[in-house]
Design goal:
Length: about 250
């Protein structure tokens, strides 16, 4: 375990109502403990319908509110049903998940993701950029080439690294209860960091998180893995009890 800042980011996906603000308060209570606050960042990425109300009521520095996707146009336009990164920022989002495999599965390409990242960065949102291989890619030994392609096509040299977080999420582990072993995650995270440095031609890399079926039990497997800068947590983030147990057990 290192002293580096750790991220615990929740992804509520298409779940949650206004009354669920109480869940965020519960998490906030735990995260406001001074000893926890100084070395961790906690973000809850909620549906667009909740961002304004949650961000407004939660005047807290211990938990930030984030969005889960946006349109590639940075401000306004004739795009029915779409929401831009500037709108999300104005509503109170500080972070945004982009490139999630559930969106890729609906047709989002590396090229579109690049435009979305550019738009979000312009609007000063911190981008949680998701990449990961499918099970077929993994079986065919293509994990590195897929990760490299996803990075190369959506990260540009001039990006402000300070506003980027990468989430390594193997598609086969999202919502399945299956996770790669700690060594496999370490190997892939090292690769991601190496490739990222090549693209931006800098010594530093952004934080790289692991995501996919993280729960309070398996998080222990990753506690001693110094490559992991935090977690992107889907299903378990909808329960404050489970989310807090993940944070507690990580440090146990
Ligand atoms: P999961 O989702 O934790 O439910 O597997 C992770 C994600 O989709 O970000």
């Amino acid at each position: 375990m290192t002293n580096k800042l750790k991220y615990f980011i929740g992804n509520w996906k298409m779940f949650g109502n206004i009354a669920d603000l109480k869940k965020i308060y519960q998490i906030h209570r735990f995260c406001s403990l001074k000893k926890f606050k100084i070395k961790n960042r906690v973000v809850m990425c909620v549906p667009n319908s909740l961002i304004y109300s949650f961000a407004n009521k939660l005047k807290s520095k211990s938990v930030s509110i984030g969005a889960q996707n946006c349109h590639y146009k940075e401000d306004y336009g004739p795009f029915t049903g779409a929401v831009s990164s500037s709108m999300l920022k104005k509503a109170g989002a500080k972070y945004i998940i982009l490139g999630h495999s559930e969106n890729r599965a609906e047709g989002e390409t590396n090229k579109i993701i690049l435009k979305k990242i550019e738009a979000a960065l312009k609007n000063n949102l911190k981008v949680i950029f998701c990449i990961g291989e499918t099970f077929k890619d993994k079986l065919n030994g293509k994990t590195f080439s897929i990760l490299k392609k996803q990075l190369k096509s959506s990260i540009k040299k001039n990006f402000n690294i300070k506003n980027i977080i990468i989430a390594y999420e193997p598609v086969w582990s999202i919502g399945t209860g299956r996770t790669p072993g700690s060594l496999e995650v370490e190997k892939n995270l090292k690769f991601i960091k190496k490739e990222f440095k090549k693209i931006v031609n800098k010594k530093n890399t952004p934080p790289v998180l692991y995501g996919g079926s993280v729960n309070s039990k398996n998080v222990r497997n990753f506690s001693s893995n110094s490559e992991i800068d935090g977690f992107l947590i889907g299903g378990a983030s909808q329960s404050p009890k489970k989310f807090i147990a993940i944070m507690k057990n990580y440090y146990k």
